[in-house]
Design a protein that fits this description.
about 400 residues; two-stranded antiparallel ribbon; about 60% helix
């Protein structure tokens, strides 16, 4: 298909495309960010839409840039290219994208998948449906993901993908089952928590277990988190999402075990009760877990002016590891302790807090982080015994009711 090519400054059009590429890539990275909130995401999307509007003026020139991006092998550029093609409004271009997703390399296929998530399917659904039985696990997973994201009728069977060697294929298949509310049993969760080391896969398995109201999920998480051999760090972290005050003591005990201490701190931050604050502040003095401790402390309290000096690499790590050490500026233990002494009375002992805000169910304050907002939604689903309607937290911020 060809489109008119109006007289336009191509360098400006390329600049628009480069910005659209960057913003979409950043958007996917930040959709469950620990710092950004709903408004931050909406502002990023608004910036991306302005660059898209500038591109669409270029018509055929924009299409040329989009097609070129789909040949480049980069996910962000492929997403931007697919977004442009979909918004040019031609069914022929949508069909071209689906054909490309069926035959291209993985990163481009994922880029197209992401764009299709955020665009009304319409007739494109009929083009995607046959791909759910493709011989390529990647193509099947991408097609199922798009259909499940839009809550279209489920594919016949995605279960063979649950053991695929590609962790992203497996993750998409698991998440699709959760969105569809499909066949997901206790043995499926055990399989992912015991035979797969991917944090991405394990987290998807736990979230799907919430969405389908898997019985005894809390007990399964406790067992996986505290088994002697190869404990699941994701299961331990997830205790902060579905646990309650009864789990605080057991989670705190894990703070003395370095391999799992970071996950325990993450769980305490998600849990949101203030009883563990002294233990979290103590952990700020341990350079091996100071970053996780700071994240937990700030997630609960939203404390300000408690940052200290950049952390130096601990003596225990190798010289090679030290070369890649990121000198995080963490919360200073003394400043955090002083802040807590001055502000503790503002926090009720038996309430949960995220970003300094008391949380008492869904919906929550939009000021809290996107990460906390996701976890509060999952907690509400867990307590309700299944998914709360058709809310899709990864949708465009403008499409979500805050």
């Amino acid at each position: 298909m060809t489109l008119p090519r109006p007289h336009i400054l191509l360098p400006i059009l390329k600049e628009h495309f480069g910005e659209l590429d960057t913003l979409w890539e950043r958007r996917e990275m930040c959709v469950y960010d620990s710092v950004w909130n709903h408004q931050d995401l909406a502002e990023l999307e608004e910036r991306a839409n302005r660059h898209l509007e500038g591109l669409l003026i270029g018509q055929g020139h924009a299409l040329d840039l989009a097609r070129e991006a789909l040949q480049g092998g980069e996910r962000g550029a492929a997403t931007a290219g697919a977004v442009v093609m979909l918004n040019l409004g031609s069914p022929e271009l949508a069909e071209e994208l689906v054909r490309t997703m069926e035959s291209t390399e993985p990163e481009v296929a994922h880029g197209i998948r992401i764009a299709l998530r955020h665009h009304e399917l319409g007739p494109t659904e009929a083009l995607l449906r046959p791909l759910t039985t493709s011989k390529s696990p990647l193509v099947r997973a991408c097609a199922c993901d798009v259909l499940a994201f839009h809550r279209r009728p489920p594919a016949e069977d995605v279960r063979p993908l649950l053991t695929d060697e590609d962790e992203e294929v497996r993750t998409l298949a698991i998440a699709s089952i959760g969105r569809w509310g499909g066949d997901w049993q206790e043995e499926d969760l055990h399989l992912q928590l015991t035979q797969c080391d991917s944090a991405l896969v394990q987290r998807a398995a736990l979230e799907t277990s919430v969405r389908v109201a898997l019985p005894d999920l809390l007990s399964i998480c406790l067992e996986a988190a505290y088994r002697e051999e190869n404990p699941s760090l994701e299961a331990l972290k997830f205790l902060g999402v579905i646990g309650d005050e009864a789990e605080i003591g057991q989670i705190e005990q894990a703070l003395d075990d370095f391999p799992v201490a970071g996950a325990a701190l993450c769980a305490l931050g998600s849990l949101g009760y203030t009883q563990p604050i002294p233990a979290i502040i103590k952990a700020l003095s341990n350079p091996l877990v100071a970053h996780a401790a700071a994240a937990a402390f700030l997630r609960i309290t939203a404390a300000e002016n408690v940052q200290g000096e950049p952390l130096k690499p601990p003596a225990e790590i190798s010289e090679e590891e030290a070369d890649f050490w990121d000198e995080h500026v963490e919360a200073d233990p003394l400043l955090a302790e002083q802040w807590w002494q001055n502000n503790a009375e503002q926090f009720a002992k038996n309430e949960r807090y995220q970003g300094g805000c008391a949380v008492q169910g869904w919906p929550v304050e939009t000021a809290i982080s996107l990460e906390a907002r996701r976890d509060e939604f999952l907690r509400a689903c867990f307590l309700a015994g299944g998914s709360l309607g058709e809310l899709e937290l990864e949708s465009a911020a403008s499409a979500i009711n805050p």
